[in-house]
Amino acid sequence: MWVLRVCWVLLGTLAAGSAQLYFEKVRSVTLDICNTSAIIPCRVTNLILHRTNAIFVKWKLQGSEFFSYDGVENKVTRNSTFQSANLLDLSLLPNGTASLILSREEAPPGNYTCDVAESSREGDTIVELIHISTSWFQPTENSFIIATVIVAAVLYFSQSVVVAMRFDMTLSKKIGLFLAELIVIFLAVIGVILLIPAGYESSQQIGLALIVVPAFILVPILHFLFTSVFEKQPLFAIILVFLKAIGYIIAVAGFGLCVLACPPKQGSIMIAGLAIIDIVAAIGLIYLIVIGVPLVK
Ligand SMILES: *[C@@H]1O[C@H](CO)[C@@H](O)[C@H](O)[C@H]1NC(C)=O
Ligand SMILES: *[C@@H]1O[C@H](CO)[C@@H](O)[C@H](O)[C@H]1NC(C)=O
Ligand SMILES: *[C@@H]1O[C@H](CO)[C@@H](O)[C@H](O)[C@H]1NC(C)=O
Ligand SMILES: *[C@@H]1O[C@H](CO)[C@@H](O)[C@H](O)[C@H]1NC(C)=O
């Protein structure tokens, strides 16, 4: 009999000594602009029973409870401002995973407390959710995009001056040319203003579209310019228009890959396309200055 009693006392001591639940220590997680939901990790490392119906989970933000899961009744309780809150995976709960998933909108930054009880044993851990706000594209990609727009603006302005001074085109054609290019540059500048601020929202997508899509107009404009300037189209002029169209197609393909992805995919393809459009504009300008023969009215 005494053997049993000693065993009983020993067991009791062991049980009391391990009444505390321990957690994998995660100090903080970050929510960046690309996360559509926030997962706040919480994993108990020393569960004994491994049964959902022995587990009770509570989540608190800055000390006030907003979510609980009662394993005995298999029942979830949520604060109404955290409607999206849920255990990441109920099937992993017996293994100690009590991580929480929340929609981005319902996950303010702060200290989240995960409190887990398994029968009479309990413990909690605190994870800080940090929001970080960056722009959609990398800073270098942003710089390149802005650079292509600035270079384009300078080139089209110079081109308008050259055309106005050196070529005897009708005034209405000159104005039409100038206005069409002005519109493209204007839309691109609006696009940059929408694109650069931190975040990945529809405004950034619209911004990118405004930079890339209207550049289409530049292809027929270049063709129109050459047909107005040369009596017979030189092969080189045709090649330039062709290259400009290629640049546009590359830019739009890159845009298509980027626009729905966060972080954007293949930003470099889109930038390469925009750069080709600029390079063709630069060559076209030099060509007009050096080789272009002014038409006589
Ligand atoms: C946000 O997404 C990144 C990359 O997918 C991930 O590592 C991180 O844990 C996510 N943050 C949160 C709070 O869910
Ligand atoms: C829900 O959470 C908010 C913010 O933490 C708190 O002000 C409010 O009292 C909570 N509501 C309930 C019903 O617990
Ligand atoms: C749960 O834990 C047990 C034992 O540690 C392991 O064998 C099993 O693969 C785990 N299950 C999952 C889904 O992680
Ligand atoms: C979360 O807790 C840490 C450590 O106690 C503290 O430094 C930090 O300011 C807290 N964050 C918020 C948002 O309260």
From TrEMBL:
<dbReference type="InterPro" id="IPR037805">
    <property type="entry name" value="IgV_CD47"/>
</dbReference>
<dbReference type="GO" id="GO:0070053">
    <property type="term" value="F:thrombospondin receptor activity"/>
</dbReference>
<feature type="domain" description="Ig-like">
    <location>
        <begin position="35"/>
        <end position="127"/>
    </location>
</feature>
<keyword id="KW-1133">Transmembrane helix</keyword>
<dbReference type="InterPro" id="IPR013783">
    <property type="entry name" value="Ig-like_fold"/>
</dbReference>
<feature type="transmembrane region" description="Helical">
    <location>
        <begin position="177"/>
        <end position="200"/>
    </location>
</feature>
<dbReference type="InterPro" id="IPR013270">
    <property type="entry name" value="CD47_Vset"/>
</dbReference>
<dbReference type="InterPro" id="IPR007110">
    <property type="entry name" value="Ig-like_dom"/>
</dbReference>
<dbReference type="InterPro" id="IPR006704">
    <property type="entry name" value="CD47"/>
</dbReference>
<dbReference type="InterPro" id="IPR013147">
    <property type="entry name" value="CD47-like_TM"/>
</dbReference>
<dbReference type="Pfam" id="PF04549">
    <property type="entry name" value="CD47"/>
</dbReference>
<keyword id="KW-0873">Pyrrolidone carboxylic acid</keyword>
<keyword id="KW-0325">Glycoprotein</keyword>
<dbReference type="GO" id="GO:0050729">
    <property type="term" value="P:positive regulation of inflammatory response"/>
</dbReference>
<feature type="transmembrane region" description="Helical">
    <location>
        <begin position="206"/>
        <end position="226"/>
    </location>
</feature>
<dbReference type="Pfam" id="PF08204">
    <property type="entry name" value="V-set_CD47"/>
</dbReference>
<dbReference type="GO" id="GO:0022409">
    <property type="term" value="P:positive regulation of cell-cell adhesion"/>
</dbReference>
<keyword id="KW-0130">Cell adhesion</keyword>
<keyword id="KW-1003">Cell membrane</keyword>
<feature type="transmembrane region" description="Helical">
    <location>
        <begin position="144"/>
        <end position="165"/>
    </location>
</feature>
<keyword id="KW-0812">Transmembrane</keyword>
<dbReference type="GO" id="GO:0050766">
    <property type="term" value="P:positive regulation of phagocytosis"/>
</dbReference>
<dbReference type="GO" id="GO:0005886">
    <property type="term" value="C:plasma membrane"/>
</dbReference>
<keyword id="KW-1015">Disulfide bond</keyword>
<keyword id="KW-0472">Membrane</keyword>
<feature type="signal peptide">
    <location>
        <begin position="1"/>
        <end position="19"/>
    </location>
</feature>
<keyword id="KW-0393">Immunoglobulin domain</keyword>
<dbReference type="GO" id="GO:0007155">
    <property type="term" value="P:cell adhesion"/>
</dbReference>
<feature type="transmembrane region" description="Helical">
    <location>
        <begin position="235"/>
        <end position="257"/>
    </location>
</feature>
<feature type="transmembrane region" description="Helical">
    <location>
        <begin position="269"/>
        <end position="296"/>
    </location>
</feature>
<protein>
    <recommendedName>
        <fullName>Leukocyte surface antigen CD47</fullName>
    </recommendedName>
</protein>
<keyword id="KW-0732">Signal</keyword>
<keyword id="KW-0597">Phosphoprotein</keyword>
